[in-house]
Design goal:
Length: 180
């Protein structure tokens, strides 16, 4: 039945009065727009455009995170190449944060772009041999995000990320069924 609603089978997918909305960013923006409470979407058009460009660049960082993780343990060249590009992504994030001049990507408190980016940063910090202390702006950002109420309520421990990685690389179909 799910593929009848969403032919790509991706999550999340929501259905409102027969209307299907899918893709993480689209469903998140929809929920933010229609439900009450603090809005998470950046309303300033230029700032929002810059955030979207950051997420596009960040996507390359995420791709290289997975390349690093999926490379064979003895394939130093592949691991090093992925790690170098991943580090460039972290430096780009640091530059963005410096230019932004605020604690978070979206301003003085986390917004939707922060919540889109942070889970990947959490995984990178847990699995990849990158010392965020070497990129102080990113380390500060990471630490501040970890203090956020929403992040605290759904964050995974570093060990849980590593356990998932070990199981997934071993081909364990149950790897996706871990967690608190």
């Amino acid at each position: 039945w799910y593929f009848a609603k969403n032919p790509q089978g991706k999550v999340p997918t929501i259905e409102i009065d027969g209307n299907v909305i899918c893709e993480s960013d689209i469903t998140s923006e929809y929920v933010d727009a229609v439900y009450p409470g603090r809005k998470l979407t950046t309303t300033d058009a230029l700032k929002a455009a810059n955030e979207k460009m950051l997420l596009i660049y960040w996507g390359n960082c995420v791709t290289n995170f997975y390349k690093y993780c999926m490379a064979k343990a003895d394939d130093k060249e592949a691991k090093d190449a992925a790690l170098a590009t991943l580090k460039e992504g972290l430096e780009y994030l640091a530059t963005f944060l410096k230019k932004n001049g605020t604690a978070f990507i979206c301003g003085s408190q986390p917004g939707l772009t922060d919540y889109f980016l942070y889970p990947h940063l959490e995984r990178i910090n847990a699995i990849v041999p990158v010392d965020l202390k070497q990129i102080p702006k990113v380390k500060t950002y990471f630490d501040q995000m970890q203090e956020d109420k929403a992040v605290k309520s759904c964050r995974f421990s570093d060990e849980l990320h590593r356990e998932y990685g070990r199981k997934a690389l071993a081909g364990d179909i149950g790897a996706y069924d871990i967690g608190p």
